[in-house]
């Protein structure tokens, strides 16, 4: 197969694009990411070289820990024929007070893209403002846009479709929840979110969700009752109750979120062939029990696996 296959080239985003939040991408562009991911996965499985970013470089500026996102991005860049440099923010001059703006100006002179994992979403926006190369959000406190396409790619593989499925997120209205709401409503799913009172998704994301659903023929519903939410679910998704940066509230959160645990009693309300999904790392015994994450319904390993082709798709579409 040719390196620059038609599928990949046909969808290449034409103008300088940052990848900060999927609300800025159309349903067709998100579908293109999934399509190109499928192509990348095929190349991986056939063992065929796919050096579509030969000689390109990417800086990976990380303020917080990462396992899946870091490794999938680094391996993706390598397998695309490029090179990724992992930069722990603590070891850069940022730590000694160099500004994000200056860091962005300098890094863009060396590399073709910057991926950043930050505490405050504002940091990744600022990097993008001052960078002359595309900036990819590798997780901020607001969103996790490189992960959400892997979720919907996995759902497509397992259930054959996304449109019309009852997609239920149970837990904290956090970064992961935001990105899943955005993609789910853009792709026409019936998205249901159940959080404790006071832990709802950002009001801006709720507005987007309603607008997206009206345009795609999907639906969005916000509830506070996990049992009602999970009724007839095709997919049950959860994430940690204590995201990176929320550690000071850990004790309080574990109490508040206890009724939202995904366990045997809760999943009884879902469809018989429901999928359980989680971006990982899982806190077994907190947001999900061993019994559920290790069950035949669990798609978490496929979801994690699909991050590799998805990162490749994002990089190949975004990096000029
Ligand atoms: N919501 C989690 C996701 C980790 C991949 C966090 O921000 O810590």
Annotate the secondary structure layout.
Elements: H1 6-11, H2 27-46, E1 57-62, H3 68-79, E2 83-88, H4 100-107, E3 113-117, H5 121-130, E4 135-137, H6 148-159, E5 166-170, H7 175-186, E6 190-194, H8 203-216, E7 219-223, H9 226-230, E8 235-238, H10 250-257, H11 264-267, E9 275-278, H12 290-293, H13 300-305, H14 307-318
Parallel strand pairs: 1-2, 1-3, 3-4, 5-6, 5-8, 6-7, 8-9
Helix pairs in contact: 2-6, 2-14, 3-14, 4-5, 6-7, 7-8
Bound molecules: norvaline.
Describe the structure in brief.
The chain has helices at 6-11, 27-46, 68-79, 100-107, 121-130, 148-159, 175-186, 203-216, 226-230, 250-257, 264-267, 290-293, 300-305, 307-318, and strands at 57-62, 83-88, 113-117, 135-137, 166-170, 190-194, 219-223, 235-238, 275-278. It has 14 helices and nine strands.
């Amino acid at each position: 197969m040719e390196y620059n296959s038609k599928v990949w080239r046909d969808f290449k985003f034409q103008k300088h694009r940052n990848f900060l939040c999927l609300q800025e991408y159309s349903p067709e562009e998100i579908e293109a990411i999934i399509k190109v991911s499928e192509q990348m996965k095929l190349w991986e499985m056939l063992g065929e070289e796919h050096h579509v970013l030969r000689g390109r470089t990417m800086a990976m500026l990380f303020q917080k820990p990462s396992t899946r996102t870091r490794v999938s991005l680094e391996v993706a860049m390598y397998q695309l024929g490029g090179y990724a440099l992992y930069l722990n923010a603590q070891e850069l001059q940022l730590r000694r007070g160099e500004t994000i703006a200056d860091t962005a100006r300098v890094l863009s002179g060396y590399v073709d893209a910057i991926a950043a994992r930050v505490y405050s979403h504002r940091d990744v926006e600022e990097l993008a403002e001052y960078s002359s190369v595309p900036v990819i959000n590798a997780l901020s406190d607001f969103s996790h846009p490189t992960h959400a396409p892997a979720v919907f790619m996995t759902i497509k593989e397992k259930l054959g479709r996304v449109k019309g499925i009852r997609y239920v997120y149970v837990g904290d209205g956090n970064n992961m929840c935001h990105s899943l709401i955005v993609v789910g409503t853009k792709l026409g799913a019936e998205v249901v979110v159940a959080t404790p009172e006071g832990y709802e998704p950002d009001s801006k994301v709720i507005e987007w969700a309603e607008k997206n659903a009206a345009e795609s023929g999907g639906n969005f519903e916000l509830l506070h009752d996990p049992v009602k939410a999970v009724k007839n679910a095709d997919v049950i998704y959860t994430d940690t109750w204590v995201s990176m940066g929320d550690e000071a509230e850990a004790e309080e959160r574990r109490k508040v979120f206890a009724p939202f645990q995904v366990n045997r009693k809760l999943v009884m309300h879902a469809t018989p062939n429901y999928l359980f999904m989680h971006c990982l790392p899982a806190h077994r015994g907190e947001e999900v029990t061993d019994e559920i994450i290790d069950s035949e319904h669990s798609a978490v390993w496929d979801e994690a696996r699909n991050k590799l082709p998805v990162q490749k798709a994002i990089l190949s579409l975004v990096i000029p």
